[in-house]
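Standup notes, structure subgroup. Blocker cleared on the adenosine-5'-triphosphate input:
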Amino acid sequence: MTGPVVRLRNAGLTYGQRTLWDGLDLDIKPGEFLTVLGPNGSGKTSFLKVLLGLQQLSRGTVEINGKPAQRGSADIGYIPQQKAFGPGTPLRARDLVGLGVDGNKWGLRLKRAPVRRRVDELLEQVGATRYANEPVGLLSGGEVQRLRAAQALATDPDLLLCDEPLLSLDLHHQQAISSLIDRRCHEQGSAVVFVTHEINPVIDYVDRVLYLAGGTFRTGTPSEVLRSDVLSEMYGSRVEVLRSHGRIVVLGIPDATTHVHGESEDDHGLA
Ligand SMILES: Nc1ncnc2c1ncn2[C@@H]1O[C@H](COP(=O)(O)OP(=O)(O)OP(=O)(O)O)[C@@H](O)[C@H]1O
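Run returned:
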């Protein structure tokens, strides 16, 4: 039997006086899609940084494929939170994707033709063929975001980390990228950790939720976690999870963040 891709034991992260989360025990298996939800500043990006080996835990342990998390792991693909390139960046769209294909094969670069074919295939999958030869500094935010997704998928990673990967994508490309990530997860067996403020575009793909808020966390299926009683307890004030036209609307979150979730409690018999 294969072990978990990610294993956290009694994991905690504290910055100064502020504990973001603590006592987190979590296994993420191959082919599992975990969504990380929570308000601004709750520690979602920090959680990804821990998995990337860029942030030390304050307590506990984190393992990726049975080894302590470390920087530059070839097992991990990462779609970072959106970053723009300067207008003069001397890199074409296809070069950025190509870095994902052979950029970490120290001195052992793949032959040019196979790399080109793989890059073309990835560009097509994210709908970026049209601008393959454009300098990245001239592309829109959404166009760059699609290249970042292609680059992260290039290595067939065991673990795919996605930090708000659908930001600035139109609906069509949100669906294209999220279903690409879903196929990588559920057909090819990558574990996916997907940080988002809006679960709606991926609700059909999510196996489990990690909800961070108020220095604490909850894990479970969407129907176990996205409930009035659970969120009210986490936020320490009354939060309403309402059903409306088959969607869940979360109201009353203290920092005025309102999540719209695309799943009905009815669908899970929680009414
Ligand atoms: N290296 C650090 N040292 C001290 N504090 C930090 C550090 N990194 C992040 N923080 C703080 O920890 C909190 C969590 O940050 P993080 O970026 O993980 O939140 P987030 O949930 O991803 O937020 P958002 O939804 O706004 O992207 C923030 O208040 C941030 O300022």
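Discussed briefly. Residues 256-271 have pLDDT under 50 and may be disordered.
Next: hand off to the docking folks.
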